[in-house]
Amino acid sequence: MKKIGLTTTVPVEVLIAAGYTPVDLNNLFITSTDYAKYIDIAERDGFPKSLCAWIKGIYGACIENDIKEIVGVMEGDCSNTKVLIEVLKLKGIKVYPFSFPHSHKKEDIENEIRKFMTIFNVTYEEVEKVRKRLNETRKLSKEIDELTYVHNKASGFENHLYQVSLSDFNGDINLFEKDLKNAIEDIKKREPLNKKLRLGYIGVPPMTGDIYEFVENLNSHFVYNEVQREFAFPRAEKASDIFEQYYDYTYPYDNEFRVKELKKQIKERELDGIIHYTQAFCHRAVEDIVLKSELDIPILNIEGDKLNTLDARTKLRLEAFLDMLLDLKEIKK
């Protein structure tokens, strides 16, 4: 099967039905043992220092791994993607456009997905067959999620990793499904973590993966990963078709739709506080204003840039925030 790169989660059902192996360039970038080389490749080719590291990492990962075709999301994701794909076109990479309509109307979303199906010459029936197969695997990620926030056995990092990987199923659906089943069996055998604070992580997946271990050492447990969970389509089984599934997906649409789901999860998971991660030079950082206004829960905004580990200042801010939450919890008792 031919590989096709993704700049973010798209209807992979269409691509798989067309005989492609989707490769999430974000995951390819951040899981590399030498992730910084991808940023260096982009900067050597003229990308400015004052640009999101994710965009540069995606570009470098695409070039270095000889990806010849990509799907670029033109609406509903990063505002820098449009210029990124222009540069990739100059490099001879074939780009297929896809958009999540800002209108968030079902008919508009259906039109976009049908155009996507036409581009790849696949039928609705072929796509639905793949969707049903993928949703079997997605159900397993819901088990890991429940092992995190109900049974307190899965770590926040495991919750993050297995859900974020569902953007491309690690390139092999059957193998990834087997890995998920093995992980579930292993996690079930553990004793609960029993940390005092229950945290939510919202915003784009972090450059700084060590944040999960760091907070666990401070008597805290991430029991909710917002965007990663959306990548896993936790409500997919309720959708009647692919159009409804991608309509009921909070990441690419307005904050009003997103906030409804956040409020529901804050209550259901009994969160004590939220860490809102944003990336330097990203327009999504401004969303922190809206979220702090709309959500009745303590929120700490932290920002990542090029480092894949937390810096000293961020660690200090996290420690102070978690200390405050512990004090609040004691007062409520």
UniProtKB/TrEMBL annotation:
Name listed for the protein in its UniProt record: 2-hydroxyacyl-CoA dehydratase
Family per record: Belongs to the FldB/FldC dehydratase alpha/beta subunit family.
Keywords: Iron, Iron-sulfur, Metal-binding
Organism domain of life: Bacteria
The keyword Ion transport is assigned to this record: no
InterPro entries per the UniProt record, alphabetical: FldB/FldC_alpha/beta
Listed cofactors: [4Fe-4S] cluster
Phylogenetic classification of the source organism: Bacteria, Bacillati, Bacillota, Clostridia, Eubacteriales
